[in-house]
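Re: the multi-chain job from yesterday

Posting the exact lines I submitted so nobody has to dig through the queue logs.
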Amino acid sequence: MHPGTGLQVRLRRAEPFALDVEFEAPAGAITALFGPSGSGKSTVLRAIAGLQSMDVARVACGGATWHDTATGLATPPHRRPVGFVFQDYALFPHLTVREQLALSLGHRPPAERPARIDSLLQLVHLEALGDRRPSALSGGQQQRAALARALARDPAVLLLDEPFAAVDWALRESLRQELVRLQRALSLTIVLVTHDFEDVAKLASHLVVLEDGIVTASGSVESLTGRNAVPGVSGLREPAVAFDARVEAHEAERQLTVIAAGDLRLEVPAIAAPVGAPVRMQLAAREVILASRRPEGLSLHNVVEAEVLAIEPAAHAALRLVHLRVGATRLLSLVTVDAARKLELAQGKPVLALVKAVAIEAFA
Amino acid sequence: MDWTALGLSLRLGLVTVGLLLPLSFVLARWLAFGRFRGRGLVEALVALPLILPPTVVGFYLLVAFGRGSPVGAAFEALFGQPLVFSFEGLVLASLLVNLPFAVQPMQNALAAIPQNVRDAARCCGLSPLQAVRSVELPLALPGIATAAVLTFAHTLGEFGVVLMVGGSIPGETRTISIAIYDRVQAFDEPAAGAMALVLLVIAVAALAVTNALARRAGRRD
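And the result, structure tokens for all chains:
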């Protein structure tokens, strides 16, 4: 990736609460800004859009500087090519969906706009509802309208503030899938604010953890979860690894799909994605059983040769969190102290990791 | 029936609405969105004509517009006629006493627009002025219409301030309210009754319009 093409953010503010943040969101990827409420995530997002003043700020995107307090440069919000999806969507109540999109197309020649509106509506599956006002749309439809309006600007970066917080669980899953589809299709650069780690695990490839206005960790989701190194949440959420994989093969007869991430190959219940398609995997540490010998007569699909990298205390005194390596891919396994002793687990020791197919969450 | 007085009243109402609405929108927007010290004081000053007796307002305006005052002297130097007891003086007085009727409905309507919606307008690429035109004005429209109706109706009915500042010069400052008073003084009850009925009808129509607008604004959310 070209270093100058992503979004670079450096913000500092003393009042009303201290904020000191620096991170980079790579181009063409989803970066999650993750942290508890009140950690300053939304403030950071607003500052990127130019809606929030800062004592010290440097915001640059795609080689263009938008904000630099050192030189006094501050591009106003309407001149920054950002698409902003607000938590409550902030649709204009007096305008139809088409009119909202038209309003965001000021940068395109008037002759192009109607066709562009049509294609945007198609992109978010709202073709039939373009002439409705927001009050006549369901929550999910409003979210898609807000997404289309943000995309209408042809943004260099798409900013999403808790985009799934206002929809129920069942809808959340399909909206996540839609977002992933759009992101891949348009190779969008996205910064997503969330306090739900599910969003991180299923959507983001990069993670910035924010606590009390300070970045406590940042890096790829795979490396941070693989090392169980997501601070602030490690104690709250179960240890689990999230990583990117590909569909390697479908075994139609057995109703299984083989996915691969580096040297790691896993069989999972059949997923509807073509061979070669990227999938996001999530595997909780408690679902990974360790063995010293290959077991027989089990309903098990996945027996993976792994190497113990480290053993660390877990939240519960009677448990240990075992860090494993399969090629370059990391796994975590939660075992009892007793089991760790029986298996004589130690750093560098080869073990077999046993994983039920249904324990693996694959997100295509 | 004093048609000249009715015509003058309608003209005063329209001129007041025409001048006051844009000025009040700017003031209402500043009060609704601005963050500054002394907002409470400005709001109190705007509301003052609501509670001050019209004769008191009229008295102060008379003093302020008089030939000896800076405002009165400046006006006379520019236009060669005194400000008091003129239509122009009446307009100026009308603008001031109607300030709360114009500002408050618009301020409430603007303050009801969520911050996120105004931010979204900017993020859609609209300049501050375009955001006012395409988002704030349409969303505040019921409030603006209410302000217009209230201002117009109130101008037609204003008596004390008009009498103090304008007197009762036919075709210049004798509004329909003053004319009604004149007719009653002259024991011409039929004429007073006819004009009172005209004002009653206008007032009822104004209330009907504002209520309808308020209901429409309520439905949209």
